[in-house]
Amino acid sequence: MFRVKKALNHNTIIAINMADNREYLLIGKGIGFGKKVSERMETPKGCTMYSLREHTERGTAMELVKDMDPVFLEIAEQVLKESERIFGRIDWSILFPMADHIAFAVRRIQNNEQISNPLTSDIRALFHMEYKTAECIRPILRERLDVEIDEHEVGYIALHIHSAIEEENVALSMQIAQTVRECIQMVEEATGQTIDVMSLSYNRLMNHVRYMAARAVKGEKLKLNMNDYMSTKFPEAYELAAQVCKHLETYLRKPLDESEIGYLAMHIERVAAQEE
Predict the structure, then answer these.
(1) How confident is the model over 106-126, as pLDDT tens digits?
(2) At what angle do helices 170-191 and 235-252 cross, to 10 degrees?
(3) Domain 58-105+128-166 classified CATH 1.10.1790.10?
(4) What 8-state DSSP symbol labels residue 94?
């Protein structure tokens, strides 16, 4: 049983769960229509509940909801429902920071302040399925707000989706994308070759650096050490891999397991051999 605290619009209300006396955001078609403050109601069929005790980088969920047009909460929920359909189980607490981001993105677009993200292509490659899923927001915004968003904004939504399916916040996902870009640039500069971004070797290298960064953040270690073999067989690739790992440690401020060098060297050697 819920007690209505405030109806935000026809589809969104803030209500108090009388079982635990906590505030929740309820989203569902028509659930707010005609609702009055303090009115009691059963849990509406088909609605989704979100705890307003969640904390975000910009404050509590309650603070965000108070200052936000509820349409952005509904739009974020539509994106997350599509994400759940694609990926299965997701962390629904990302609803509030995602809605907050969408609200700012729409405001920027309406003020002709659209941004450029130099990492968009990297985000699209690193988080391919998340990016494809994030594109569902294009027709939603077009239909509901008559707003067109570009690939850069889609990229940011993709990072929020990634945050909902992995234990990475948006800032960390962005940092990993930046790190991958810089590490691949180091490989290109050292080999004097421009790596074909469409090649399988590039994709493997990019994803290896991505997961290497993720392992560093989580403190995980590889089970097999290939350092002796790679340093003897491919010394130049091994030396470059050592430099990249050092850069990655500095950037992430996290130590890497020493065995990461040999595995990275293997991927660097594959790319160099393919580009020759």
Answers:
(1) 999 989 887 778 888 888 888
(2) 150
(3) yes
(4) G
Identity (one letter) of the amino acid at 76?
A: A
State how far the Cα of 143 lies from the Cα of 133, in Å rounded to an integer: 17
CATH topology identical between 1-53 and 58-105+128-166: no
Q: What's the order of all strands across the beta sheet hosting 40-41? A: 40-41, 2-9, 12-17, 22-27, 48-51
Tell the CATH topology of 171-275. PTS-regulatory domain, PRD (1.10.1790)
Domains of the chain, residue spans: 1-53, 58-105+128-166, 171-275
How far, rounded to the nearest angstrom, does the alpha carbon of residue 201 sit from its chain's CA centroid? 24
User: Which residue blocks in the chain are alpha helix, DSSP H?
Assistant: 61-66, 70-87, 95-110, 120-126, 128-134, 137-145, 151-165, 170-191, 200-218, 227-233, 235-252, 260-275
Q: Does domain 1-53 have CATH number 2.30.24.10?
A: yes
Q: Per residue in 178-190, pLDDT tens?
A: 877 787 788 888 7
The string of DSSP codes covering 177-193 is HHHHHHHHHHHHHHHT-
Token pair 């059963």 is at which residue?
Answer: 42
Angstrom distances, CA of residue 40 to CA of 18, 35, 245: 9, 9, 59
